[in-house]
């Protein structure tokens, strides 16, 4: 799958969380190495979230097929800039993961696509060197950043003052730039806030 591009139906199924764990893992492996498909998946995620919000407001209109919507997507130079604004000294998720010197950090909590209660919400990731500084970003499903912070720790809890909505999906990632100029990231991760 890593040589050919993902088709719009597969990207739509991925964005709507209709894939099995094995299928999802295969798509994520491809997305890690294909900037064009990452752009398409990012655009689809923004459209899917926009449609969910519209349906909540309207409480009527059926879900528009994401494959049809993708055909009308306005070309965005870098859709990952919505999820990860360019920050000097950090790696944005849109950067090619296969480049030399880029390491993927393991994530321990929350599990990918987990439903997590506010009381249990802790972000825990792999340490990457004794002097590493980590830039944490939490955003809503559309990619709008809700909270960013920099820390030397690998465990983080969101502040009580940050309003999160039960039942909503959120995206998060951690980027690190080590003193020896090596880059690492967790990549963009998802969770849903439960009761």
Question: Can you describe this structure in just a few lines?
Answer:
The protein has about 200 residues and is α+β, with helices and mostly antiparallel strands.
What's the total count of β strands? 10
Derived from helix and strand composition plus strand pairing, the structural class reads alpha+beta
CATH class of the largest domain: Mainly Beta
Overall average residue pLDDT:
74
Compressed to H and E, one letter per element, the order equals: HHHHHEEEEEEEEEE
* Helix coverage percent: 25-40%
What number of structural domains do the residues give?
A: 2
SS summary, helix count: 5
- In terms of per-residue confidence, which ranges show pLDDT below 50 for 5 or more consecutive residues? 59-99
CATH domain topology of the largest domain: Immunoglobulin-like
Can you put this structure into words, describing what you see?
- It is built from five helices and ten strands, in the order αααααββββββββββ.
- It has 195 residues and is of the alpha+beta class.
- It has two domains: 76 residues, Orthogonal Bundle (Arc Repressor Mutant, subunit A), CATH 1.10.10; 117 residues, Sandwich (Immunoglobulin-like).
- Strands 1, 3, 5, 6, 8, 9 and 10 form a seven-stranded mixed β-sheet that branches. Strands 2-4-7 form a three-stranded antiparallel β-sheet, with no helix packed on it.
- Helix 1 crosses helix 3.
- The chain is globular, with a radius of gyration of 17 Å.
